[in-house]
Amino acid sequence: MDTKLLSRLDLLADNTLSVVFERNRLKGLKLNVDKYEGNIQKNLNQLRDGIKVLEQQLSEEEQSGARDTKSEEDKLIQMQVKVDKLDALLGNQDDATARDILLRNNRGKPSVRFTAVDMNPNDLEDGQILQLQQRIIDDQDTDLDHLSLAIRRQRELGLLIGDELETHAQIIDETEEMVDRTDERLRQAKKKLDYVGRRVKDNTKEEIPEDANEHCPGPESELAGKKDACDGCPNQTICATAPKGPDPAHERLMVRKMNGADISVIAERLSGIKHKILVLSGKGGVGKSSFTSQLAWALSSDEDVQVGVMDIDICGPSIPTIMGVVDEQIHQSNSGWQPVYVQDNLGVMSIGFMLPDKDDAVIWRGPKKNGLIKQFLRDVDWGNLDFLLVDTPPGTSDEHLSLASFLKESGIDGAVIITTPQEVALQDVRKEIDFCRKAKIKILGLVENMSGFVCPNCHGESVIFPPTTGGAEALAKEFGIALLGRIPLDPRVAKSCDMGVSFLDEYPGSPACVAYEDIIDKLRDIVE
What we know:
The structure is a single chain. By secondary structure, the protein is an alpha/beta fold. Helix content is 55%, strand content 12%. Strands 1, 2, 5, 6, 7, 8, 9, 10 and 11 form a 9-stranded mixed β-sheet that branches. The longest helix is centred in the N-terminal third of the chain and has 79 residues, at 126-204. The protein is elongated, with a radius of gyration of 45 Å. This is t-SNARE coiled-coil homology domain-containing protein.
């Protein structure tokens, strides 16, 4: 019989038994043991095949009678016992059979410590004493091996738990750091809003006479001299009969002071900006902010061109969302407020960055709006720009008047007016054109947005907003203004704005993208 094969099988059986013990331990801990199953089954198959080979060899030797095969037969039986024990431990036998196998295998030589000794030690021979001592040492070695294995497994489990705890602690630390950063941003935003509010309040504070009654409504109020609180006030008659509104002489004085101070500072601050373009619309919802964002992305696609976007739609700031920077904050430096940068050559400034919550309403009257616009022009460090695009609110409001006044010295290249084809939108565009002419703002051209719908499959065009009076083309001819182009309706423009990405980059070659690029090229030629 091949004794080398028998030795290899015996070693393989012992190793497999150790693996089975480890597999059963992990299974008891409800851990994954899939990685052990394949190797164990492979080893069992090798053991069974090897035993069959050895049995065949042993049978041939017994038939030949060449030599005594008793010892080899005993070893082979012990090998089969080990395989049966592995099957029992793996659950490959029914419960009763497995229990009998394990009990039979465990009825081996008892430990010396639990063996009844009825012999007299003095009657033992030296060889017997040595044999007894060797059994004691073997038992102790076995116990130490089991203890060492248990300690090693506990150590491995401890290291595994330690790694998990370390990972959890790291996650907690990172979360706490994010909370701290968020709290700091909220604190800075509140501080900036308080500062803006104080500045605006100081600029618009109404003077009340020192000898006025308590609860005086103020001399500029429509109820001045008429409220019950005015009874007995020495100024009652004057307040009741005086014209309301700012004193023209005082207003002229304030304008001269502003011309000598803030407007000059603004002109100096914006001296590094080559071109300033306003984006206007007579009515809301015609795509003015969408056009501003696409124009900004197109211009900044050239890395050598520096672009800034100033959002003065104070009550409805949508530029932060459209440009994908809705969660950013404004930072203060020695040179002033720093714009929020979408990319290295594209900066944005909006009141949306100053709100503690993006859903907070901005309920401001004209003077506070004017004060914030002045700060955007005077206190923001725009640096050297090739283009500053100003996204305005719809219509002609305080923001437009303030902007025209503040940029009087620094100059405006012109305005682009966005409209849709239907007459209800064109009516307000006529008012916008009249405002620009009275404010001496050059009109660079009209853009007709949502001008039909081009099917992405058949490329057929459908009219969504009928140009009942000729649309932007007829209006441009009526007022002698350039029609920069028509942009077809594309739902993907709205999707890009919601996601804060460039429509021109996401859908190049689409009809709307081609129209945008053609209009932007015309604008470049006009201003440059």
